[in-house]
């Protein structure tokens, strides 16, 4: 009997390219039929066939409180009842802007948008408009949404003028994007030494979460800050994923670095489409209507999205919230590591706050090149075997995982029990 998941996926492919509205959902990397979700509550999601899963994707990060948190749902319902969109200022969006500026020391002003891509794309344009320069630096393996200038293939560590990694991106656009290796301070110093006065901005995931999880070396982030200041380049921390995920003051608070601009998304919308970019007043004031850099959005600052986000931000600021989240995440990764070791499977794992990475490699990677050394076949087997046991992990070896406040000891222990059985089977393969 074909499952409803399978039927839906077959039909979806007829009407939606690849059957999905965002590529990684298609299980292209791990193979098999994607799971169609119908409902979520807390740490659990149910698919169209009624199968329950403990969810470690959390909509790729936003669901830090778990699914369908009663207070978030209530805020959404109450706000929606007053109208869905006005295309005019609202008090709620001011409250969100003020909240973000209060929480992040380097954020004097902020503008709300509807996705992470819009936030990074706008921040890059603003940095270019502010500096009057064209070139930007990004790092191998970092993803910053799908704006043309950021979809640039990684070079091999050294200074490389990028080739586009997507059809439809003009070579001329990609040529302004330089790709360096993550955590490689020496390459950064060398590049700034050569062309520092041409660099408009450096954009970085302060904890990389789009090549699995790669933690930053503190000296790397420090070098970034110093070089940008020295050369008048705008330092953009892309905290779309890490923002209010790794800690109460994002990754910048954790590592004690104040960027010039910060981009946010995911958690600040609590599961609704919301992004933001903000930072130094002097830079932000270059935006229209005050300055020459144009940026706009019909649904920007949408009240329903803002209501979900404000409620989420209020709840995550509760004392001890992040300590508990980080402890639960550590319990998960320590348990996974111990289970793998018990069965002699080559494996490592690490976490930063409520984000984690699992690697079929002896030690956690520190760069894209090292991430590529992970055993992808082993991951794919692990993913499907865990899925069969009702554990939903990110369907790719190159994505970070997420724990929510709704993941209690019970869910984590069930996950570890499943992993013990799966690793046991793997050691016999
Ligand atoms: N930046 C980072 C660091 C991200 O992780 C993502 C999405 N995963 C984006 C930008 C793009 O955000 P969105 O998918 O909301 O456009």
Automatic annotation (TrEMBL):
Spell out the reaction equation it catalyses. Answer: (S)-4-amino-5-oxopentanoate = 5-aminolevulinate
CDD domains per UniProt: OAT_like
One GO MF term attached to the UniProt entry:
transaminase activity
Taxonomy, superkingdom? Bacteria
Identify the GO cellular component terms for this protein. cytoplasm
Keywords tagged on the record: Aminotransferase, Cytoplasm, Isomerase, Porphyrin biosynthesis, Pyridoxal phosphate, Transferase
Intracellular or extracellular location(s): Cytoplasm
EC class of the enzyme, as a word: isomerase
Kindly give the InterPro entries that the UniProt entry links to this protein: 4pyrrol_synth_GluAld_NH2Trfase, Aminotrans_3, Aminotrans_3_PPA_site, PyrdxlP-dep_Trfase, PyrdxlP-dep_Trfase_major, PyrdxlP-dep_Trfase_small
* Family to which this protein belongs: Belongs to the class-III pyridoxal-phosphate-dependent aminotransferase family. HemL subfamily.
Q: What is this protein called?
A: Glutamate-1-semialdehyde 2,1-aminomutase
